[in-house]
Amino acid sequence: MKHLIHGKRRVMLAFALALGVMSLAAVALASEITATAEIEGTTVTTVTVAQGDSTSFNVHADATGAVQCQSTSTAKADTAYAVNDSGIVSSGTPSTAMTWNDNGTTQGGGMSPNCGTTSNPQTRAAAVTASANAPVGTYTNVPVKFTEISTVGTGTGSAKLSDATLSTITVVVVAGSVNQAPTTPGTPGATSSVNEGQFTLNWTASTDSDNDPITYRLEHKDANDAGYSLVTGAGSLSTNSFTFGSSNPEGEGTWTYQVQASDGTATSAFSAASNTVKVDQHAPTTPTATPDRSPDYSGGGGWFLGSVTVSYSGSTDPNLQDGSAGSDNITYSAADVLNSSGANAYSGTATDAAGNESAAASGSLNVDLNKPIVQVTCPSGPVTQNSSQTASYTASDPGESGIASGASGTVALDTSQVGTYTATVPAGTAVDNVGRGSAAATCQYSVVYNWTGFFRPVDNPEVLNTVKAGSAIPVKFSLAGDQGLDILAADYPTSNKINCLNSADMDSIEETMTAGGSTLKYDATADQYVYVWKTDKRWAGTCRQLNVTLDDGTSHVANFKLMK
């Protein structure tokens, strides 16, 4: 409980509080201060204060007596009184100045009389404080000091304000209530035991039996620290948590934490040390990228037959700045499956337990997914029966490993029979550098009879053969052997009327035959086919073209002028 004292004191700066009566000694021819002390409106001579506490009081002062005429007097009272652990009482902290003026009425005789002092009651607040360990007891004759006392005037007389008679106060120190320290806070726990420096520590809050406000001091040490030190910004925390954020991350290292509570006067014991918190701010080393096998072809930058899988491994996590091990527990990017034709890019990283990601291991590998391509070319036109013919081919492996064998060549054509046929370059003829063979490739060609003719008596165009209408003309040709009699296309031979060209060379048919109708036969001796074409008498005076179309699709014509 704080006490208010209103005290009376005498100047000569003697503030004598003696058991209810303030003693004020009169000094002739000098101005004196009269003062009273009060606690809650009651005049007292003793101020009581508890250990670790303070008591306030008021000093009410006025001055009486002789002072130099036409003068102003000032004085300052000490306002702070203290009893320390050794029982020594001290004072200090002067108040603002108290001021008195002369009243202009002379006192006494002589050549230079003084004047009286004008009453000017003034109050200043003061307090007595006892330390928590100040000895309990009564301290008498505690001087109440006035300082900076002065009188400045221009009139007669020389009396001044003074502190000639010392005033005292009795201070009684009584036992104070014992302040209890807060309870020990709980062990700090981190929201993340492995991180990059951003996390929150929480602990169970302390309690205070005196219901005093509690603050916390958080300390830390890393693996190479000899002892704990204050966490920056955590010397007086009002809550039971602390966050290391993006603007104030924890430094790299393996840390432990302890926390202490304070009520402003007493402090608790430190908490138990926290579990370690590993702050890792450095990435693992770059991993090694490893394909699942060696290239199937080492040339051309290396080529793989089909897809290849690249996996990542081999990273290490460097030690932390305090020399402790990194967070380790390294994980790697998922393996890359490279399955596109040509160059395939890969890239993979390593990540430690704190989330630090390494530089990427990257590059590209070549994959050959496709067979070589074979292009085969057959003769553009028909080939004659039983002639020696070939189809040519070339092989390529665009955008892949390239051709190892069978880059080009020919295949023989079968011309033994008339007709349309397929030439085939067999599968695997061309092989690329990873060992993949080509697919079969084909082209088509046609075989026709080895025709020669017409033979005499028929001349080939542009000759116009002349013959008597109604004659049977032996039309002769060779197919290089007996091909049977089923050599003509359906509905052939035919004849059609044509213009007679006056400019055409004409040649008479030297040989005609007697026949009832047109016929075909083969003459083995001459190796000739003979088609007997029976002309119509009604064709006399016209020109006609005979068209002999064979079953190989070839057509052979001869022109005739039929005479009467």
Question: Short summary of the structure?
Answer:
The chain is built from no helices and 49 strands. With about 575 residues, it is an all-beta fold.
Kindly state the percentage of residues in helix. under 10%
H/I helix tally: 0
Largest sheet: 11 strands, mixed
**Rg (C-alpha, Å):** 66 Å
- Approximate shape: rod-shaped
Distance between the termini: 166 Å
Which class of secondary structure composition applies to the elements?
mainly beta
Portion of residues in beta strands equals: over 45%
Total tally of structural domains: 5
Q: What ranges have pLDDT less than 50 throughout 5 or more consecutive residues? A: 1-28
Write the layout of secondary structure elements.
Blueprint: E1 6-8, E2 16-18, E3 21-23, E4 32-39, E5 42-43, E6 46-50, E7 54-64, E8 66-67, E9 71-83, E10 89-94, E11 98-107, E12 114-117, E13 122-130, E14 137-144, E15 146-153, E16 167-174, E17 189-190, E18 194-195, E19 199-202, E20 215-221, E21 229-230, E22 241-244, E23 253-262, E24 277-279, E25 288-291, E26 303-305, E27 308-313, E28 331-332, E29 336-338, E30 342-348, E31 350-351, E32 361-368, E33 373-377, E34 383-384, E35 390-396, E36 403-405, E37 408-412, E38 419-425, E39 431-432, E40 441-448, E41 452-455, E42 464-468, E43 472-478, E44 494-498, E45 506-508, E46 519-523, E47 528-534, E48 543-549, E49 555-563
Parallel strand pairs: 1-7, 6-16, 9-13, 18-24, 26-32, 34-40, 42-45, 42-49
Antiparallel strand pairs: 1-4, 2-3, 4-5, 4-7, 7-13, 8-12, 9-10, 9-11, 9-15, 11-12, 14-16, 17-19, 19-22, 20-21, 20-23, 23-24, 25-27, 27-29, 28-31, 30-32, 33-35, 35-37, 36-39, 38-40, 41-43, 43-47, 44-48, 46-47, 48-49
